[in-house]
């Protein structure tokens, strides 16, 4: 589908095609969505002085397919300006990561230049997802629907989500470190019953010391891994990204 075309079908239970962000994840192999954030509720300051444009350029050099930018300021130290700077310097598709719940949030995401937006299923009335996705797609914005377990995955699929992230953290707002490093692989046992047009993303705890390996994520059948902390604190983000991508291929 061309990037400026509406989705073919956004009715609940169907599989939409998506736009530029989704297209970038449909390439062969496991893609990386590289995240820009300065702090997190669980870890506190990660890279307090990070420059979004500089970090985005390093991620592109390392082979990131897409970027994820936190625009929430209080917990993560982000801003819409970070998203705009990252997109301007790299040209990569950018996901707006924030706590987005309303149709106005969809419009705001489009207005700030996001190619995609995160919607956390547990944060909304599930019935809100189809109209949010329909509006987003009509504006050329993809929707990445985040779920935290097999039951939420089933609900998201039934509602027509076409990009779904399995978050290994139970609560992204929590100050407790509650990542289950085996969750993404465990939930992947459900993938055989899911339409293979749905893009599947693993998020949280990937590439960190003692965390989930890229090889495990690739073997589990994911299309992409969303990686934040490991890259944000790395001494050499491009080198780490190349190493992670090589691991996903078994190099």
Structure description:
With 251 residues, the chain is an alpha/beta fold. The protein has one domain (20-170, 180-249): TIM Barrel, CATH 3.20.20.70. It is 33% helix and 18% strand. It is built from ten helices and ten strands. It has helices at 20-25, 52-62, 80-90, 103-111, 129-138, 150-158, 183-187, 214-219, 229-232, 237-249, and strands at residues 31-36, 39-40, 44-45, 66-70, 94-97, 116-120, 142-147, 163-167, 199-203, 224-227. The protein has an eight-stranded parallel β-barrel with strand order 1-4-5-6-7-8-9-10, surrounded by five helices. Strands 2-3 form a two-stranded antiparallel ribbon. α2 packs across α3 (80-90). The radius of gyration is 16 Å and the shape is globular. The two termini are 32 Å apart.
The helix fraction, in percent, is: 25-40%
- The CATH architecture name reads Alpha-Beta Barrel
What does the main sheet amount to?
8 strands, parallel, barrel
Number of helical elements: 10
Strand order of the largest sheet: 1-4-5-6-7-8-9-10
CATH class: Alpha Beta
* Proportion of residues in β-strands: 15-25%
Following the backbone from N to C, one meets helices and strands in this order, namely HEEEHEHEHEHEHEHEHEHH
Roughly what is the average pLDDT, rounded to an integer? Answer: 90
| SS class | alpha/beta
Question: How is the CATH topology named?
Answer: TIM Barrel
The termini sit apart by 32 Å
Number of strands: 10
Shape: globular
């Amino acid at each position: 589908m061309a990037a400026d075309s509406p989705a073919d079908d956004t009715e609940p239970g169907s599989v939409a095609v998506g736009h530029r962000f989704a297209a970038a994840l449909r390439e062969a192999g496991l893609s990386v969505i590289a995240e820009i954030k300065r702090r997190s509720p669980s870890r506190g300051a990660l890279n307090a002085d990070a420059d979004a444009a500089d970090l985005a350029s390093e991620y592109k050099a390392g082979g990131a397919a897409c970027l994820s930018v936190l625009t929430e300021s209080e917990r993560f130290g982000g801003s819409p300006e970070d998203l705009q700077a990252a997109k301007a310097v790299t040209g990569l598709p950018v996901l707006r990561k924030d706590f987005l719940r309303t149709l106005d949030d969809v419009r705001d995401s489009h207005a700030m230049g996001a190619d995609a937006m995160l919607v956390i299923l547990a944060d909304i009335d599930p019935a809100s997802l189809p109209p949010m996705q329909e509006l987003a797609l009509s504006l050329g914005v993809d929707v990445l629907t985040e779920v935290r377990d097999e039951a939420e995955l089933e609900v998201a699929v039934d509602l027509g989500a076409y990009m779904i992230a399995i978050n290994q953290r139970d609560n992204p707002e929590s100050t407790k470190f509650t990542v289950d490093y085996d969750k993404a692989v465990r939930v992947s046992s459900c993938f055989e019953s899911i339409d293979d047009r749905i893009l599947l993303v693993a998020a949280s705890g990937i590439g960190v010391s003692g965390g989930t390996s890229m090889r495990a994520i690739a073997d589990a059948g994911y299309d992409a891994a969303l990686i934040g902390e490991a890259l944000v604190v790395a001494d050499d983000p491009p080198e780490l990204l190349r190493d992670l991508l090589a691991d996903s291929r078994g190099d």
